[in-house]
Amino acid sequence: MKLFLTSLLLIVAMLIVPPCWADTNKQDVKILLNTKRYPPYVMDEGTTVNWEFPGTSLELLRMVADKLGLEFEYYRTVWNRGLHMIEHGDGDAIFPSSYREERAEYALYPMKDNSPDPSKAIRTYAYWLYVRKDSNVTWDGQRIEHLKNPVAAGMGNSIIVDLEKMGYTVNDSSPDYTPMMEMLLAHRVDAIAGFGDRVDREIAKNSKRYISIKRIDIPLRQKNGYLMFSKHFAKKHSETMEKIWEMIRVIKASSEFEKIKQKYLSLQESQ
Asked: What is d(CA 150, CA 170) in angstroms, rounded to the nearest whole number?
C-alpha cells in the first residue's frame, strides 16, 4: 500500500511539475496593435492576425520572438485604447508608435544620444497632405499656406501635435479617412494630413466620388514607428526589452528579412 501511494504521488508530481527539459522560462510579451490594416506592414484588419500573410512588421516580430526564445501574444484594439492600456500596464508593448514626449512619460523607446534610434524602428512611414484640386492650399516642405479652415487628421495620430506646434487648427474628430474626405469636399476642412497608402486606397475605392481630391507631392512628415514598451514592463524586464530592440535592428538589416519585404512587394503588385 505504501509503495502504491508513493508511486501515485510521483505520477501526480510529474503531471503538475514540467520535466526538467521543458522550457519553463519562456517569457510572454503582450504586444498591442491597431485593428486597421497598413499594407505591407499589417495586411489585414480586425481583432485577429492572419499568420499566412500577416505583413512585414508582424513577420519581423515573429522572427524576433523565435531568435530570442520569447512568446509574443498579440492583442488588437483601437489605437487610443491601446495607448491607455500601455500607460496603465495592461499591455507590455505597442507598435508602431512614433516618438512623442507625452508618450515618453509612461513608455520607453530605443534611444541613442538622447534621441530615438531609427535603426531599431519597426518601420518608417510618411504623412501626406491632401487637398481639393480647386484649392489654392500649398505645402512647400516648411509652411502650409492659404488655409481658411482646419486640417483634418486621424484621432490620436502623432501628426496632430506637429500641426498644432506649427500654428494650425486641427480637426481630429474622426479616426477614419472617409469622413475626413467628406469634410474636405464639404469645405469644413481645407486639407487632410494622412498616411499615403491608406488615403490613396480610400480614394481608389471610390474614385468617382473623390476625383476632386489630390495629394501634394511633398511629404508632410516622415516618421519612424517603434515597438514602444510600457514602463511597467521595463521595470521588471529591462534586459528583455533591450534584447528585443537590438534583435529588431539585426533582423531588419539581414538578407532574410529583405526577402520577406520583397515577397510582400510582389504580393501588392499582383493585386
From this structure: 5
Of the two residues 16 and 233, the one the predictor is more confident about is: 233
Residue 267 CA to chain centroid, in angstroms?
21
Cis geometry, peptide bond prior to residue 19 (ω within 30 degrees of 0): no
CATH of domain 126-222: 3.40.190.10
Mean pLDDT of 234-241: 97
Model pTM score:
0.71
Distance CA 138, CA 216 (A): 8
Mean of pLDDT values over 151-167: 93
What is the residue whose three cell numbers read 517569457?
27
Contact status, residue 55 vs residue 42, Cβ threshold 8 Å: yes
3-state secondary structure of 167: coil
What dotted CATH number matches 28-122+224-270?
Answer: 3.40.190.10
Mean pLDDT of the chain: 89
Contact criterion met (CB below 8 Å) for 109 and 47: no
Interaxial angle between packed helices 255-270 and 231-252, expressed in degrees from 0 to 180 and rounded to the nearest 10? 80
Longest dimension (CA), the chain: 94
DSSP label of 90: S
Is the pLDDT reported for residue 19 higher than 70? Answer: no
